[in-house]
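Before relying on records like the one below, remember that each one covers exactly one chain. Contacts with other chains, cofactors or solvent are not represented anywhere in the record.
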Amino acid sequence: MVNVSGSNAPRPVRVPVRVLVVDDSALVRKLMTELLAGDPDIEVVGAAADPFIARDKIKQLAPDVLTLDVEMPRMDGLTFLQNLMRLRPMPVVMVSSLTELGAAVTLDALSLGAVDFVAKPKLDVARGLAEYADLLREKVKQAARANVMPLSPRQTPPRSAGFRHYRTTDRLLAIGASTGGTEAIRHVLAAMPADAPAIVIAQHIPAAFSGKLAERLDRHSRMTVVEAADGQQLLAGHAYLAPGGRHLRVQRNGARWQCRLDDDELVRGHRPSVDVLFESLAKQAGDNASAALLTGMGDDGARGLLALQAAGASTIAQDRASSVIWGMPGAAVALGAAQQVLSLECVADALLAPPSR
């Protein structure tokens, strides 16, 4: 075990944000150090080739944020992350390969408390490094502001436990999220009964990850959770996750709701976009809808939630205290789009509550 115990008291966000880069590749360590150092608000205080070196440097350098590789010698990144979040919680941004295995491992890391993730930089494509650098820097700076909690045992409710009868033929529920959202969505879905109204979900996530995320959410929910398909009918007791790289809209076909996927332009820098999903729901479902905007950086979803409120839908924003990043829900609150601002623990019940008309 790598012992990283120390004070767990929250540290104020410092400028520049102090970063420790942990990766077994000397080339990746050098590249990430150079990319991060290009931002005057970030200081790379050190680099480590494995978790044991990282342990000592965390104690010596007290970084604000860790970037952490998954595959490393002597101890894998997940084991190290688990020890770190149990003994000395701090913001961690995972660096993962965009492969099926990388997707599964990254989702494991997020469940253990990592704040966010970035793909491994493409060392042979120099033209893409500027865009990569902007993303990496922004995620590191946002991570420094995250609420990081000590790791606690997580229990997955069995599909038969706590069953609540809730019948509907017409209501639709919607969830939007970004940074910290994979775990927040899991928490909400785990509290849903097996026959809850259909739920449509937009989470900012790469295409290589969304299928694995849907599988993981399905294992933790009494509902059936799937990656949405174009033309798919929306059924009670099912949740539909927008595929990475595609917008998800809801449309009505006679008496039925359907998923509609497309590859239209990015909206607020994202595809899938929460605004796109929420605005389609406002037009198609109106006061038959309830929507929650969860943790995430930026403001995607805030205008869509406002459109839903104007259409008579019930609107919810996750509160600051329970959000990893209070960007998207905070933007919705600033717009006056949220009728309720709730802790994550209360979101599922609020979504299920009958609409007040």
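DSSP finds eleven helices and 14 strands in the chain.
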